[in-house]
């Protein structure tokens, strides 16, 4: 599904949207940056409570579809600027990572079984 | 498409770490290197770049892009790695708490560098420095 569809379905707030048509094929939850780079698949929606400049760099290197700062975490101005410079889709939500991941997982599984949905 | 890139990594600026790796990523993409290869090389180099900033007060990185492979040489004049075998273990870390609070220092940097490259050589001497040479095959 596209990032725009995920944003609408999960009610995510847009901090910086570079490419809403980007495909979201998987998801990953985590705050330890090397774990994310070691485990997250390309084109994942990365759900985290980290919101520093390194988060943006990791999103670039790991080629995730977007970063979702969960649980009401706010991004500082310098983080937003870096996301804009690097072309990283940056989103946020007041919901807990667990809830967001659960809903995303269900949606991705549904698509897997019925690509027409 | 032989290309050589050279970067000086600033040891004082943790937040700007990733600029060199990001640049290499852009160059590889422009050269038409397959995205999975670009991703592997970028992550491996970024981990190395971060390590240089955390442990060695910066250093220099040379990247050679050849038709069949990418070779990244990361050289620092830091404290060296006393026990490479130990440092290579997933979860082993000597990073300070300040770094851990930023999401690094989980002891996965060197393991990731090994995981995402086809070969990795560590040449290190305590008190002198460390040179890590990583190769990612393109074909």
Note down, in words, how this protein is organized.
The complex is a heterodimer of chains A (117) and B (139). Chain A has helices at 3-10, 33-39, 53-62, 77-86, 97-113; strands at 13-16, 26-29, 44-48, 66-69, 90-92. Chain A is an alpha/beta fold. Chain A has one domain: Udp-n-acetylmuramoylalanyl-d-glutamate--2,6- Diaminopimelate Ligase, Chain: A, domain 1, CATH 3.40.1390. In chain A, strands 1-5-4-3-2 form a five-stranded mixed β-sheet, with helices on both faces. In chain A, β2 (26-29), α2 (33-39) and β3 form a beta-alpha-beta unit. In chain A, α2 (33-39) packs parallel to α3. Chain A is globular and about 40 Å long. The N and C termini of chain A lie close together (10 Å). The model of chain A has no long low-confidence stretch (mean pLDDT 96). Chain B is of the alpha+beta class and 139 residues long. Chain B has a single domain (3-137), classed as Heat Shock Protein 90, CATH 3.30.565. Chain B has five helices and five strands, in the order βααββαααββ. Chain B has a five-stranded antiparallel β-sheet with strand order 1-2-3-5-4, with helices on one face. Chain B is globular and about 40 Å long. Chain B starts with a strand and ends with a strand. In chain B, 39% of the residues are buried. The chains are: A alpha/beta (117), B alpha+beta (139). The A-B interface holds A 31-35, 37-38, 42, 50, 52-55, 57-58, 60-63, 78, 86 and B 14-18, 21-22, 25, 35-36, 39, 42-43, 46-47, 50, 102-104, 106-109, 111-112, 115.
């Amino acid at each position: 599904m596209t990032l725009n569809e995920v944003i609408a379905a999960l009610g995510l707030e847009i901090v910086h949207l570079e490419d809403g048509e980007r495909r979201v094929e998987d998801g990953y939850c985590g705050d330890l940056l090397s774990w994310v780079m070691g485990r997250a698949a390309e084109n994942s929606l990365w759900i985290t409570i980290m919101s520093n400049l390194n988060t943006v760099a990791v999103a670039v290197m790991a080629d995730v579809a977007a970063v979702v700062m969960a649980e009401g975490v706010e991004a500082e101005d310098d983080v937003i600027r870096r996301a804009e410079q690097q072309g990283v889709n940056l989103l946020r939500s007041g919901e807990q990572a667990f809830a967001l991941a659960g809903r995303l997982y269900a949606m991705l599984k549904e698509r897997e079984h019925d690509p027409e949905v | 498409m032989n290309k050589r890139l050279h970067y000086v990594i600033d040891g004082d600026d943790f937040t700007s770490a990733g600029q060199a790796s990001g640049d290499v990523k852009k160059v590889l993409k422009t050269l038409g290197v397959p995205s999975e290869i670009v991703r592997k090389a970028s992550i491996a180099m970024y981990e190395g770049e971060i390590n240089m900033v955390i442990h060695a007060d910066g250093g220099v990185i040379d990247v050679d892009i050849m038709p069949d492979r990418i070779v990244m040489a990361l050289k620092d004049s830091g404290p060296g790695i006393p026990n490479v075998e130990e440092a290579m273990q997933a979860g082993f870390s000597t990073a300070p708490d300040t770094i851990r609070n930023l999401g690094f220092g989980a002891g996965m940097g060197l393991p990731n560098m090994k995981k995402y490259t086809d070969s990795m050589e560590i040449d290190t001497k305590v008190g002198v420095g460390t040179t890590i040479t990583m190769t990612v095959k393109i074909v």
